[in-house]
Write a structure and sequence with these properties.
The protein is of the alpha/beta class and 336 residues long. It has an eight-stranded mixed beta sheet with strand order 1-2-4-3-5-6-7-8, sandwiched between helices. The longest helix has 16 residues.
Amino acid sequence: MSEAYRRFAAGDLALQSGQVLRAASLAYQTYGELGAARDNVILLPSYYTGQHRGYEPMIGPGKVFDTRRFFVVATNLFGNGLSTSPSNAAPGQRGADFPLVTLYDNVACQQRLLAETFGVQRLRLVAGWSMGAAQAFHWGAAFPEHVAAILPWCGAARCSPHNWLFLDGVKSALQADPVYAGGRYTRPPVAGLKAFAHVYCGWAFSQTFFREGLYRELGYDSIAALLGAWEQDHLAWDANDLLAKLATWQQTDLARHPTFYGDFTRALGAIRARAIVMPCRSDLYFPPEDSEREVAAMPDAELRVIESHWGHCAGGPGRNAADMAVIAAAARELLG
């Protein structure tokens, strides 16, 4: 996968919280060629513990997001270490002083990137996994005239009470490390990061995944080996970056936009894009029951459940070929 990426200098961003994210920078990468009519654009917003390159198994000639036909823009969440984050923010906003950034703050900046850098006003598709899925919902609600279709998979339009509680659990595991020091650490809180990874891994897959030893399909001969890989992945992250994105996730609620006055049903009803909403049957974060309620309130939406034992990770780009094929079929349908 390519390590290259580009930056959009967004200046000082007024946030929904009333704070200002100073000298904000949105990291992104593009794939394929923008058509003369600027009407062949797919947007892929990043997911938790992911960056733009995480979608690359799905991008390219003949792949799900076919660069022979489409111009693909993959963006990075604020807080993910590439876009402005606690680890790289302006002085006075680094570390524990980083402000709360919502998904609406993210999509508003993404819209500016597309309009100001590429002259793009309408998207063929906004698609994504997990927090990327949540951003697809937010795009549809905030910019209904700008989006032809959305494909959110293994994600939701708001953080449910149970999902919020899970996230608070992994956050508490990290913060319990005394080295964390309230976010003002002078060295990585290794024990906390490992604890975070252990709790997180247990929720990322289903009970059947572990019972049937499906981790072997990922190349691990034991649960301990899988946990070791998750530890190494999380040790590569800055702890405050992880928690900044987690705060964004916990605050996810489509109704937070001032247009909707806190009315979740009204917010869903504002999405005019053709939508295929794809939860996984065994996802412990975003169960199909939540998606059923969302689809029922959307004007042009269809629910397609991914029947898989891979839990939330059924949606992980490139992880499971069978699940990717189901998602690919929906994407190709929406893209014509």
